[in-house]
Amino acid sequence: MASRRAAFVVALTGLAALGVGLLAGSAGSLRAERSDPAAGARPAAADLLARGRYLATIGVCEACHTPPKVPAQPPPPGDEQEIARERDFRTNPDWKQYLDETRVDAGGVPFILRFSPTSSGVVYSRNITPDVATGIGRWSVEDIVKALRTGETPDGRVLFLFAPHTFFAHLADSDARALAVYLKSLPPVSNRIPDRQLPFPPQPAAPVPHPADPPTGPSPARAEYLLAAVVGCKECHSHHENGVLREFTGGDPKDAFVGVFRLGPDLPLRTGEKGLAAFPYPGNAVLYGGNLTKFGVDGPSRDTSVFELMRAMRRGIAVEPDQYGRPRPLEHIMLWQFYSQMSASDAYSIASLVKRLHYVPHDVPQGPIRFGDDWRAAFKQVYGNEPSQHDAEIFGKTLPK
Ligand code: HEC
Ligand code: HEC
């Protein structure tokens, strides 16, 4: 399983710099982490690899590029053990444990894209290990950096870019190089990726201004940089209103792509497989990223501390307890299993940025909205209309006559 999230999340535009003030409060307890890979601006060559690995972790490459541990064929009838394993795989929301750590970044995960009621496509995450025949073994560091910035590959393809690939153009030169060095250090894995199918030819992205080196932290500049170039908080916690991206205000049922996650047992895992779900879950459900501006300076939850926000980000524990006063676990889609490896300094910078937001009232449904086996109701919740015949086909469903 991989984070299909972004497949249904339209590319983020207008990552306008937020008006952020100075970092308030003492960061004394964070000094000890200053030597971590995220902090140094000009590391020795030996540190580049560690920095690349760190960026790959918080940039969640593996969420999409590491294939799940499913055999190429569905379990044969009668193989109860494999059937149980597959069932667990498709319905246990803790999907990260099922990534195949013996094939890190070997690609091949299908993403079904629905552009309109009549137009769709499928892209597969690519093999980004240095395997020469099936991966990026022939690519130089410069080739990788270029692909991350504009989507152009040395073999003349143009990548279909969706978040977080839409962010990577903003990477500092040294960070982009660090990521490339890290990819080249991976164990090569042979895995041939099927051809994608798109109803249009993707265009290269225009180059954007980017720094030579990333800002250091903890600082507001570091937070803004990470959110623009690496980490997807805005992607999941925003929505469009009249074509304008309302940052950090939460997903919206009226905005079919931003901040919406489809959950269910029928997620596509193998080549050619179809399914409506984007993440495993028992039954069909839809989930929205919440309104983070409520934690801001003038928001109703302004009493929430930076450290409570850091705990939500890195430990997956909701800010507010559940109705019985118990800590409420956040859904795994929140990617806290990846952010758990974020340095305290970076997490502090980002949480502090959230604390400086100004409140924008916007109600977001909390927790999964469950539809049981009614996939059409889940579809309607996401896209706002009844599925067309074409929709049913791309997601492998049948419509009642
Ligand atoms: C949301 C899923 C997703 C995430 C997260 C993601 N990628 Fe990708 N990546 C893709 C898909 C899908 C493609 C193929 C696009 C296409 O074929 O048009 C791709 C293609 C690539 C390619 C081009 C390889 C080739 O042979 O064409 C590189 C390089 C790459 N990704 C690197 C990364 C790195 C590095 C990260 C993390 C910092 C990352 N990706 C995170 C989905 C993702
Ligand atoms: C892939 C989508 C996704 C990304 C990326 C993401 N979030 Fe979330 N986040 C969610 C969803 C969905 C929830 C709600 C989960 C739940 O209620 O179980 C959530 C919940 C939260 C909460 C808890 C809110 C509460 O009321 O307790 C905080 C805080 C938060 N996210 C902050 C962040 C920050 C900061 C980042 C970036 C580092 C981030 N999120 C990145 C999807 C995402």
From TrEMBL:
It comes from Amycolatopsis silviterrae. The keyword tRNA-binding does not apply. SUPFAM superfamilies: Cytochrome c. Residues 47-187 form the Cytochrome c domain. This is Cytochrome c domain-containing protein. Residues 193-219 are annotated as: Disordered. Residues 199-218 have a biased composition (Pro residues). Coiled coil: none annotated. PANTHER family: ALCOHOL DEHYDROGENASE CYTOCHROME C SUBUNIT (PTHR35008:SF8), BLL4482 PROTEIN-RELATED (PTHR35008). InterPro entries: Cyt_c-like_dom, Cyt_c-like_dom_sf, Cytochrome_c-type_DH. Keywords: Heme, Iron, Metal-binding.
